[in-house]
Amino acid sequence: MDKLAPIPDLPLVAILRGLEPERAAEVAHALFDVGLRIVEVPLNRPGALQAIATIVRMAPHDALVGGGTMLSAADVDAVHAAGGRLMVAPNCDAAVIARARQLGMLAMPGVATPSEAFAALAAGAHALKLFPAEVIGTAGLKAFASVLPAGTGLWPVGSITPGSLAAWRAAGAAGAGIGSQIFTPDLPIAQIGERARAFAAAWAAAH
After folding, report:
1. pTM more than 0.85
2. How far apart are CA 76 and CA 207, in angstroms?
3. Is 129 marked active-site?
4. What's the chain look like in SS3?
5. 81-140 pLDDT per residue, tens
6. In the chain, N or C: fewer CB atoms in 10 Å?
7. Which of 20, 116, 129, 134 is catalytic?
């Protein structure tokens, strides 16, 4: 089993849905250059595994790279084989969580209810993706935190903006996942870097 990778100091996940493998290196460079260190490439688009492998090869030593929309143990095996060490899913599947843990990957399944949250923790999840965050809201995150074990990492994902990060952090979010607010396949590289920089600055200002 691989040693579990630590969560980087800047706990923001850039979710690169639809990333073409041929653009993976330049997009990742744009993110890493402004301080982001966690990259997730969802598997429900073509080329995801190739993109993950490319990013892993050029990532800084303190980066955490992995896959999203990981729905089966086979997905976990494939991402691990590509070099990924982060498992993210939109749902809570005990078998997927268990396989990620077996391989030494950081397991972050998706939950939307306290029942799912407790089930995910019982299965060995290291942190919880609160999804969809726009439905759960900051009040919902506070409610989760009030009943879950102290120190449980809650990461909202869904419609997070630089302007909303302070409220999420004040509510107790350990980090956040950001998708189309940072990356869409048609965005120019410079704009991806600018958006990532805005999120990094907003998280730091919310401290």
Report:
1. yes
2. 33
3. yes
4. CCCCCCCCCCCEEEECCCCCHHHHHHHHHHHHHCCCCEEEEECCCCCHHHHHHHHHHHCCCCCEEEEECCCCHHHHHHHHHCCCCEEECCCCCHHHHHHHHHCCCEEECEECCHHHHHHHHHHCCCCEEECCHHHHHHHHHHHHHHHCCCCCCEEEECCCCCCCHHHHHHHCCCCEEECCCCCCCCCCHHHHHHHHHHHHHHHHHCC
5. 999 999 999 999 999 999 999 999 999 999 999 999 999 999 999 999 999 999 999 999
6. C
7. 129
Quote the pLDDT of residue 207: 76
| Active site annotation includes 40 | yes
Please answer whether residues 128 and 89 qualify as being in contact, where contact means their C-beta atoms are separated by less than 8 angstroms.
no
Strands 38-42 and 12-15: parallel
Instruction: Report d(CA 41, CA 138) in Å as an integer.
Output: 26
**Are the CB atoms for 59 and 84 separated by under 8 Å?**
no
Structure tokens at 14: 């850039």
